What we know:
The chain is α+β, with helices and mostly antiparallel strands. Helix content is 54%, strand content 12%. A three-stranded antiparallel β-sheet has the order 1-3-2. The model has no long low-confidence stretch (mean pLDDT 91).
Amino acid sequence: MVTKRIEEADFSATGYSYTLSLIAGKYKPIILYCLMEYEPVRFNEMQRYLGRVADKTLSQHLKELERDGLIHREMYPEVPPRVEYTLTERGRSLMQVLDRLCDWGNENRPHSS
């Protein structure tokens, strides 16, 4: 059996670290979950779904998710402009991971009596 030494470990080089870097933040997992359930979703719909979230915060999270290739932003040339968000194929592939988190939460959350 090979013993691993923590002194030689580099967490930032792990797949776990990379995945967390994509979904880190208070709202990113919720945004992804919302899109999985309800896509396409407009900005204002997303804001209502999330509750108390500042425009700037939501906008920043959406831009980061788009930059990372997890969501797609579609702008329609209408007046007023209409923007919708959907998951990309890459984003859909991450849903398996988020589904497992949901399953774990359903199985392990305390039940009210």
